[in-house]
Amino acid sequence: MTVDVRTAARQLVPPAIGVAMLLGLWSALAASGLVKPRLLPSPNKVWQTLERSIGLLLEQATPTFLAAIAGIAAAALLGIALGIAVSASRRLMQAIYPTIVFFQLIPKVALAPVFLIWFGHGMAANVIFSIFIAFFPVLVATIAGLQATPPTYERLGESLMMPRLRIFFGVKLPFALPHIFSGLRIGVTFAVIGVVLGEFITAQAGLGYIILFSANNFETALLLAAIALLCVVGVLLFGFFLALEAVVLRVYDSR
Amino acid sequence: MSDRLRAAILPTAFALGVLALWQALVMAFHYPKVVLPAPTDIVAALIDNAGALVHQAVPTMRDTLAGFLLATVLGVGLASLLSFSRLVRDAVYPMIVLLQLVPKIAWTPLFIVWAGIGWPSRLTIATFIAFFPIFISMMAGLEATDRSLVRLSASLTATGWRTFRLVRFPASMTYLFSGLKIGATLAVIGVIVAEFISSSEGLGFLILKSAALLQTDLILAAIAVLCLLGVGFYGLVHAGEAAVRRWQGE
Among A147, A193, A198, B186, which is 20 to 30 Å from A255 by CA? Predict the structure, then answer.
């Protein structure tokens, strides 16, 4: 028991000191007058702004949060489904995979204005753009995961005359799951980025809009409060996928 | 057909097929050029605006390269420093991993407030975004060094610095380059988003301006140039990795 407390302390105390030092440095910098409060308000001021504007911020965080959830959910479905379809045939994969890799490399955010021309300036365009951005990491991870099965396991399944569907669900999918979840973890951050970027450009609602609006008005405290809330949104979604991964992997392990 | 030949022909055929289908769809249904220009329209826009595109590509590439290089120096430097002290590493590392999770692109307006609307803010954003994957992969590489090698050099009375320079640093190159590749693509994204928000130059500015004027063909031409730059940049990092591998004699 004492050992547990000590390892926990060793894991928690240094980061806590790190955060405390950062906040201290920030407060000192803001209090010293070296930096204008307009550029860097004190942590205290940011906290007060967050408390005062929490109603507004939550109201704007809702569309961002919902759009990001819709984005990652659709991107996960599409990415996993297409990954499975492409992996079904070696030729199909040889034909399509390089194009997918090319799309991984290019800066897809540059396409945001095109999506707005195509789908208008509403929340739908943000969601579709978010799906587009979050889709590729999930797809690539699914393809990589389905190739990760050791060939001997597949051959064993075949020689046991297992039907293809059972080989897929019983052998290939369990090996692919860790890869798929690592793709989902990347995808979920991308989904948030896609939504916020859409909000930057259309500037009508959402946390992205608040961030841009407060930057234009030099309301740096509100800007930092909105960024903090966005970080909470990002970490919440990320945490959800971590939890899902833990649950799914446990289910698959216990079979 | 040999397997290698097929691996080259199939993807080319697929890409050409997609382009041909795109062209055929536009021609058959007479989509307005504003909504979906045909590939030939995009090529025409590329040729007509070649001067402007090159002119705008220069600042984008300059800020991207500078930001990437700065992020590499900072990321490798900080990871190396932290590898010498366990306590400092335990204090700083979790914070950086947490920051890795949050959507950092959203911080762009903050940097514009801090550094103005000129190139310094774009450089800072590119550096900030590219820093995290480079730092984290370098850190992972330094951690993953074979323990027995480190113990061997310690028992040969090598100093901490010598062990770092001759054992741990060379051993972390594979990890570092995987981070550099992610950093290279992120640096481009950072500069583009910053140009969307505040700039009066660069490909991002050109894209947004063309969007406002509904010149979709010019947007896609600019994106084509951007893709070329992005892939070229990635190829450069890849070539750097090959050079380091060869130099290390692998």
Answer: A147
